[in-house]
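The freezer alarm interrupted the setup, so I double-checked each line after restarting. Inputs confirmed:
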Amino acid sequence: MGIRPTLLAGIVSALFTMPVWGQTEPRGALQNVLAAHRDDVAYEVVGLDCRVPPPGGAASSIDWARVPHVIIFEDEATGVTYRSLGRIRIIADSNGALRSEWLYLSQGGLEQSRTRIEILTRNTRVQSRAIGAPEAKYARFEPKTYEEQVALRDQRHQSSEWYRATRGGYLELVRYVSETLLQASDTVLEATDDGVVIRSEEWGYSLTTTPDRWEVQRIRIREPFDKRINDFRFLGRLPEPIFPARHPRETRANGYIEGEPAENPPWITRFEIARLIDPPPAQTFTWQSVAQTALDEIEGTILNREGEAVGVREPEPPPSERIQLVEEASDGSGRWVPPSPPNTWRRLGLAASITCILVGAGLWLRRKLHG
Amino acid sequence: MSEVSSRQHRLPAIAAGVISAVWIFAGTYKALDFSLFKQTVESHGVLNDLLMTLLPALPAIELLLGFSMIAVIGHGLRRVSLAIVTVSFLALSAMTIYTWLVPTAVLESVGCGCFGPGFNKIASGLGLGNRISALAVSAVLFILHVVAAQGCAHKPQPSQQ
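Predicted 3D structure, all chains:
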């Protein structure tokens, strides 16, 4: 088995661009992290999205042990039982385009019908609820500079870069946080027993890494103007060096208020495959690869496969303008009340009555016709 | 002898009547609460988008099948009757295969959608899984189809004056 040329080129390139090992200055360390997490490689990552379905609701009535392909396991750290509800597959090219597929394992039927797709490039986003769906959502945007991201953060808005970081998997999150910390004015580095922690109070971001391979063990993100922390831990490593850092074997994501225990058990993603691939065809990252038409969310137009606008869609009214569906109270008081949920037995009786009438009418007609 | 031939003539008609009633009931229930039926089928995740667009036609097809059986079977139009029983049999087979494709846990959770949620409640009340009860209903209907088809093969008895 020979070393793949792209892998070799990545390692050599990273060795040349990496600053000196052991450097303790935060910017140097961040450059090391970025050099170990290059985004100019084409790669594929496959994993299982494991969660704890909330008590009650439809999920509680499902006999999970009988659902094919769903793996049930007890997490040693928390003692909680998890179920693999989805299979994640991320494909990325060397130009910043990535395609994320999420296959619902708890549903049956054709795989393409139960695979949710999101495609992100540097300036577009595509979302489709299935492969071959009648319509995908499509949006174009301009990449934001650091200053624009600061302005958005101060207005409590999220940038497209932040969105990409939270949806694109390990590599995208590490690169986004590293690049942000690199430009922040108050970034500091602390040496700990686990490695080094690089953080910025201004952003509320912190990144834990080790100076041997500069692989990232943990990222903590405090939401702006909030005490809520998004905590990502990256455990274990898959064998192949691909960025050239190795991809984590498991990601544990959790959200909690600073100083308080977490409300929910962590959301676990267990990765099985992380490998370099030949650059996928450009078509892989277009909305035409997943849907028949697309709704341009910015323009409000419907696009055909040639990208021509063939219709207009009125934007959805804001929640305040939506009409609450109500019905008049049956007691004659003239009050308007929310509609009552349908009564199963009443409908069953109604259907049975209509059936009897229709069968009776059919028999009568039959007698009339045939004598 | 005449009692035997009368029974031979009556049984297929009864079978066809039961099948008709089942088709009409299924079509009526789906038409009455089509949005619920659509949600159920969507949660099964078996049909692709093209087939989902054809879903509104299903209640009408079921009603048409039910009425066709009532109108024709047992009245001498043997080829037409046999054709209708065959179409009904194929439709039932398609629905049985469809139910088989739905994962058990999803089927137990939302039901098959054949006769609405009331059927699921009855099924769960009897302590039977939706999978088993759906298969049992299909099995009974398959047997009824065979009985109804036998009626198509026999010439109708001339009425005794």
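Quick read of the result. Chain B has a mean pLDDT of 77.
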